Amino acid sequence: MCTARINREKFITRNNQYAQLFHCKLKFQRKYDKAIATLLKIMNTPLISICIPAYKRPDCLIRLLNSINEQTYKQYEIIITDDTPGDEIRRVLEQFTHLPIQYYSNDPALGSPGNWNSTMTKANGDWIQLLHADDWYSSPTSLQHFVTIITEGNSDFIFCASKEINLAANRIKIMELTEKKRQLLDDSPINLLFDNVIGHPSTVIHKKDNAIQYDSDFKWVVDIDFYIRYLQQHGGYSYIHAPMINIGMDTEQVSEGSYKNPFVEIPEYLNLFTKFPETLARTNKYAFHCLWNLIRKFNIKDEAYIREHGYHGKMVQGVADIINYQKKIPRIILKQTNWSEYFMNKCYKKFSKK
Q1: CA max distance for the chain
Q2: pLDDT tens across 48-75, in order?
Q3: Are 10 and 113 in contact (CB under 8 A)?
Q4: Residue 348 — φ and ψ, nearest 5°?
């Protein structure tokens, strides 16, 4: 009886050990399966999401997709969000079924930059390149150049030189970051108010951050506003000296209807200033110079003119001082860049000491 009892106890103990071993194995298997699933997800996740906000112009989209197809670097996805009524863009994509394209039709249309934000938020990649449909890669190795900088891990924001190409006028202009422009950007991203030395959004690739989107209240200063906010949050940038992107230039672009349009530029610049401290124009000479150039460009003589052209917020500090100062200068003198800068410096010196 005693022996039987001992054997039974051993049997129970051994069964418990087997059960524990089984549960350990099951637990390990679950962790292993989860790790494999995570690894496969990482392997299948594209490094870069090429985001294309489309609106009509299928010929431009074909040119862009052909340039993507030629890229030597292949770990990307293509997100296309389409504001076009009808199916002309969808029909274009039938030619590119071999590319990893995700297509979304916007109904109703989101407009610019709502369509930009839509394509960016659908991205799965760690990095985003917002490529407008009228722009395209300048070389089959363009994307690889961006990836090389990404792998160095020095910054979350990368941009490159570009070629502005106007096919109708047979004109090409190289846009690059000179040493003077680099110093301006290095001093502070806010200096982009004075001069957008980064350039078109298509020249930029940045780490995905859904908390920072393009402001849908803007059309003309929308890229400047985005760059300033992104760089203030992430800090630092990397620059590729060679032009990796071709920028298509023509009269059908949204920006063409905004350039030198007082109903666009005046309210947008002043509304952009309200995002910063009230004293910005007093403490930042480039911000003051931006206001100076705005008032000079449209020959603004009083606050009423500003209100008539769509700005209804609190008047930005420095505007009244610049208006009163420019009134004393003959217009023919003020139009000359060197003289304008001379008087701007004198005005800023006086204003900053108030």
Answers
A1: 121
A2: 999 999 999 999 999 999 999 999 999 9
A3: no
A4: -65, -40
DSSP reduced 3-state for 260: coil
Alpha-carbon distance values, 315 to 198, 204, 237, 274 (Å): 28, 33, 33, 9
Identity of the residue numbered 6:
I
What CA–CA distance (Å, rounded) separates 86 from 84?
Answer: 6
Helix/strand/coil for 61: helix
Structure tokens given for 98: 């071999």
> Two tokens at 134?
């009228």
Considering only the top CATH level, what class is 45-255? alpha beta
- CA–CA separation, 286 and 293 (whole Å): 10
CA 207 to chain centroid, in Å, comes to 10
Is residue 284 a contact partner of residue 188, using CB atoms and an 8 Å limit? yes
Check if the beta carbon of residue 250 is closer than 8 Å to that of residue 166. Answer: yes
Q: Where are the domains of the chain?
A: 1-44, 45-255, 260-352
Query: Whole-angstrom Cα distance, residue 295 to residue 153?
Result: 42
**Torsion over CA of 260, 261, 263 and 264, rounded to 10 degrees?**
-70
Q: What is the DSSP code string of 274-342?
A: TTS-TTHHHH-HHHHHHHHHHHHHTT--SHHHHHHTT--SPPPTTHHHHHHHHHTS-HHHHTSHHHHHH
Residues of the chain with pLDDT under 50: 1-4, 33, 35-42
* Parallel/antiparallel/unpaired status of strands 157-166 and 204-207: antiparallel
d(CA 290, CA 191): 9
How much is the pLDDT for 152? 95
R_g over Cα of the chain: 28
∠276-277-279 over CA atoms, to 5°? 125
CB under 8 A, 24+ apart: contacts of 82-86: 82/54, 82/55, 82/106, 83/53, 83/54, 83/55, 83/109, 83/110, 83/111, 83/115, 84/54, 84/55, 84/56, 85/109
6 vs 192: CA distance, rounded Å: 85
Q: Whole-model pTM?
A: 0.86
